[in-house]
Amino acid sequence: MIGEIKMKLSRREFARIGCRVIIGATAGSAIIESIVTNSVASEDPPKGEYDWKEHLWGYVIDTRKCIGCGRCANACKLENEVPFDEPVYRTWVERYRELKDKDVKIDSPNGGINGFIDDVPAEEINKAFYVPKICNHCENPPCVQVCPVGATFSTEDGVVLVDYKYCIGCRYCIQGCPYGARYFNTEKGTADKCTWCYHRITKGLLPACVQACPVGARIFGDLKNPESEVNKILDKERINVLKPDLGTKPKVYYVGLDREVR
Amino acid sequence: MQPHLKKAFTLLAIAIIGFIVVRSFIVPVSFGQYGWYRGDAIIDSMNFEIRHAGSATCGEENCHNSIYSIWIDSKHKTVNCETCHGPSEKHVNNVRIMPEPVNDTRDFCGMCHFKSAARPEEFPQIDPDTHGENLRCAYCHNPHKPWFV
Q1: Pairing between strand A252-255 and A57-62?
Q2: Is the alpha carbon torsion for B24, B30, B36, B38 positive or negative?
Q3: Whole-Å CA distances, A226 to A221, A231, B116
Q4: Three-state SS sequence of chain B
Q5: Which one, of A257, A256, A225, lies nearest residue A58 by Cα?
Q6: Residue of chain B nearest A151, judged by CA positions
Q7: Sequence spans of domains, chain A
Q8: Which B-chain residues 24-43 have CB contacts (< 8 A) with chain A?
Q9: Burial B42-69 (b: 16+ CB within 10 A, else e)
């Protein structure tokens, strides 16, 4: 008969059990949460005088100025303990040569460190130029997304770093980077990449490649400072980034980038 | 509560507590401090050893300030000391540790100055086959204050 279905629990009993379940679940999840996150998430910047909230680093490469001497790639290897005799680079220089028959030759022998050999006579070349390459320190970095262990990350000041103690060397990030800016460091046994010389910029110095460039083709500065040289160039020049269609939002801006450059 | 439920809940509770205890040992203290990574990794990156001291350091009082004052007025003022002389932070901290000797071959100067189609035209370039009779560049040109001969 309809209406005869009755709960065996009394109203009071039901309320009591209900309250216990809710309080228990809340307390339990709070305890688990507090232990799992280890400590209360702190918003303080890392120790020391450097405040990473005051900066957002940016990098400009003027391809019209580059002379292809490769001193940047050389200085980078020496500054950052990149295996010198292995074909791995944090920054390198590419040479693009568009021939008269519209064939495009792209090369980067040893990253440009030993210079370039002219193996095509000048009469056959339509146009030629050098393009320095470096990690773009994307605002939306694919390499960070694919890391399974949280060993690579974006800092508050816009630099993508690797945690060498935490990296398991799975190489996903090397495959994930659309710019080929990452390499496997056989000495460390981890993935490795340009840090924009984080140990230098946090002490007020310039990255080693910027300091080494003899023609000022590489400009480094703070995007949060309206007076910085990087911001002045971004306001004045016609700039582009590499592979803008990927949505990675690079923070390395190129002046005078040719359509052939990928 | 029925005994079989009691058993199941006890097992579940032990599993959860076990997970929490093991996790607290495995996960580093600073993990999650700023995001899904080890916060101390930033300190590690900041503490990496500096190798390039910078030209201003070379030009300090009682060091190389005479050659520095010549260089800073020259066309080569954009070429930092360590671009040719090599990383010198160790030398700054201990003068007995000398930086690598300078490569004074033609090919080294040629990395910037040999004629190349890819270089900007206004940049000073020479044809190594017709210029300088295979002499060392420094035979005629002062690298610290270059001039046209």
Answers
A1: parallel
A2: negative
A3: 10, 6, 37
A4: CCHHHHHHHHHHHHHHHHHHHHHHHHCCCCECCCCCCECHHHHHHHCCCCCCCCHHHHCCCCCCHHHHHHHHCCHHHHCCHHHHHCCCHHHHHCCCCCCCCCCCCHHHHHHHHECCCCCCCCCCCECCCCCHHHCCHHHCCCCCCCCCC
A5: A225
A6: B37
A7: 52-140+192-255, 142-191
A8: 24, 27-29, 31-39, 41-43
A9: bebbbebebbbbbbebbbeeeeeeeebe
Q: Is the dihedral of CA A122, A216, A135, B46 positive or negative?
A: positive
CATH topology of domain A52-140+192-255: Alpha-Beta Plaits (3.30.70)
B44/A164 touch (CB, cutoff 8 Å), yes or no: yes
- Coil, strand or helix at A209: helix
- Give pLDDT tens digits for A92-122: 999 999 999 989 999 999 999 999 998 899 8
pLDDT at A1 over 60: no
Angstrom distances, CA of residue B67 to CA of B58, B76, B80: 9, 12, 13
Question: Which ipTM was obtained for this model?
Answer: 0.88
Fold of A142-191: Alpha-Beta Plaits (3.30.70)
Reported as type and span, the H/E element at residue A33 is: helix A11-36
A128-161 tens-digit pLDDT: 999 999 999 999 999 999 999 999 999 999 999 9
Identify the residue among A29, A36, A146, A194 best suited for mutation to test binding to B, counting B beta carbons within 10 A and taking the highest: A36
